[in-house]
């Protein structure tokens, strides 16, 4: 632990361990738990982790609700993770089916799966946050901890904290929309995810036109028609160039913060008929896991305190303002739809508050 009381590098190590299928011990003020991520486990790893067959299964709040297991929590606890008791029929394959919604419609519901009180709630929540950061399904085998913690709740909270973000490099980058653009890259010591800003035009005393663009590999690079990210990226660069002065922040928040693999899992659920909101919830995530504090910090490092924001999403305006940036104006950012993203855009309008 550092003198600040937290060590974000411990969170980075825990994320790495989870992806490799190694157990992790998480400690909070309310106790400690030992966890094995279901996604990266197999029968042998489970047997080593839990030789006596005692480990419960930890599910996120939204996954538990999807599986109709939320009613086992006390009233008012709907936002809490759920710990299922290990039963003889809760074997490795069943745990995988509890964790992964892909087969929900194909496999009949087994059970019963009685829940048991979850003592270290903050430690469990930190573990679920680490799974999201690892780009994995938020579900674990869980045992009481008997060893020292690998990571604490404070370590997880501090991981990739915007306050630790700094400019790492900058260079001229002529792009199709603006031949005199400049690129600025940012990073924190603990998180390998680098964010970038593209500065276009010359500061002229007016508030810059700013776009917060969340990474979408399928839309930005492969030009997927399932979303509006590709056309929005092009339109933002063109609008900023036309305005004379502005910044595009390219935020590495793929899939609204759940990562590429989980977003593609959500797409597979959308192939089964679920919309973008329900797909995220079935996977066990929030509808939107993004934190726009990182964007506010990037703007502050660029000496920008007031912006005109290109967006249809009021949550982006609120997120920036909560982090100390003045949004002088929201500039709508509507692009043409196509038959493949028509329903997606309707869901954004009807369920996530986008002003479309
Ligand atoms: N989880 C998930 N993420 C998606 C899906 N479709 C697009 N995304 C991601 O959503 C992000 C873009 O966010 P949107 O909700 O489309 O738009 P927004 O940024 O909130 O709002 P605007 O500023 O108005 O464009 C990108 O990170 C995409 O990768 C999906 O079906 N599921
Ligand atoms: Zn997209």
From TrEMBL:
Its EC number is 3.5.4.25. The gene is ribA. Residues 170-332 form the GTP cyclohydrolase II domain. GO terms for molecular function: GTP binding; GTP cyclohydrolase II activity; zinc ion binding. The active site is at residues 288, 290. Gene3D superfamilies: GTP cyclohydrolase II. Keywords: GTP-binding, Hydrolase, Metal-binding, Nucleotide-binding, Riboflavin biosynthesis, Zinc. This is GTP cyclohydrolase-2. InterPro entries: GTP_cyclohydro_II (IPR032677), RibA (IPR000926), RibA-like_sf (IPR036144). SUPFAM superfamilies: RibA-like. One of its GO terms (biological process) is riboflavin biosynthetic process. HAMAP family: RibA. PANTHER family: 3,4-DIHYDROXY-2-BUTANONE 4-PHOSPHATE SYNTHASE, GTP CYCLOHYDROLASE II-RELATED. Pathway: Cofactor biosynthesis; riboflavin biosynthesis; 5-amino-6-(D-ribitylamino)uracil from GTP: step 1/4. It comes from Sphingomonas prati. GO terms for cellular component: cytosol. GTP binds at residues 211-215, 232, 254-256, 276, 311, 316. Binds 1 zinc ion per subunit. Catalyzes the conversion of GTP to 2,5-diamino-6-ribosylamino-4(3H)-pyrimidinone 5'-phosphate (DARP), formate and pyrophosphate. CDD domains: GTP_cyclohydro2.
